[in-house]
Amino acid sequence: MPFLDDAGAPLEGLRLEQRPADGYRFELRAAVRYVDVPSGRAYRAPAAGEAPPPSGTTDLASVPTPLWGLIASYGRQSAPAVLHDAQSLAARSLDDPAVALVRRREDDDVFHRALREQGVPALRARLMWAWVSADREREYGGWRGWLLLGQVALGVIAIVAAVVLGIQWHPAWLLLALAPALAALPWGALARLVITLTYPLALLGPVLLVQLLAIGVFRAVEAVVEVLVGGDARDVVRPTVRAAVSANPDADAR
């Protein structure tokens, strides 16, 4: 089902206001609605001002800055991201982490379905779902969440080792790449998350590394130039964060 405005009409556009003017967060100026067809559950992202901050604020898709060249923070994913931010804030307000975890698992699945409805490519949508789901398990899953992330890291190492050993020594080593999938099975319903995190991270790792190195070099050059012109070298790393915090500390609490 398409996204709707607060009157129930198909959503023609997101009304966002950058706050502060040099910040990276936005205030939603008009509420957004969505109905998840499989569950029949109705969702609503409230506009700023309907509730105390940070309600009604969003950073759009929470893609780390170095990865914006691969997946943008806005686009077809904007409406699902705004809705997901609202649901994440609602879950964070719950007193019981176990209840919040259950709710977030449902909301993250809705986020994935909404991404696909908006035409986000299947792989991109699945990766975005996996990233928010990993953050959910880290935040609410306790030691099990950290265990899951640790297993993903070991799985990535195993796949890289399988490829290297398979090329350098014997193709039979490539079978080691199956180990992370088999090790994910005991996680039950979370097995697909472990697999979705592990294999793309292993396969796309070199691309991400090159991206990070390129940005690191650019930031270093920026820092040097900033010092030469009498500026603060720290401003080249997310230069809007301090301004956003000083202007609206509640909006950066999430």
List how many beta strands DSSP finds.
6
Low-confidence segments, ≥5 residues, pLDDT <50? 239-254
- Arithmetic mean of pLDDT: 87
Structural class: mainly alpha
The main sheet comes to: 3 strands, antiparallel
Distance between the termini: 29 Å
Radius of gyration, whole Å: 20 Å
* Percent helix range: 40-55%
Order of strands in the sheet with the most strands? 1-4-5
**Pattern of helices and strands:** EEEEEEHHHHHHH
Strand content: 5-15%
Q: What is the overall silhouette? A: globular
Q: What's the tally of helices?
A: 7
Keywords summarizing the entry:
7 helices, disordered C terminus, 52% helix, 254 residues, three-stranded antiparallel sheet
Describe this structure in words.
The protein has helices at 78-92, 97-117, 122-140, 142-168, 179-184, 191-228, 241-247, and strands spanning 4-5, 16-18, 26-28, 32-36, 41-45, 57-58. With 254 residues, it is mostly helical. It has a three-stranded antiparallel sheet with strand order 1-4-5, with helices on one face. Strand 4 (32-36) and strand 5 form a beta hairpin. Helix 4 crosses helix 6. The longest helix is centred in the C-terminal third of the chain and has 38 residues, at 191-228. The radius of gyration is 20 Å and the shape is globular.
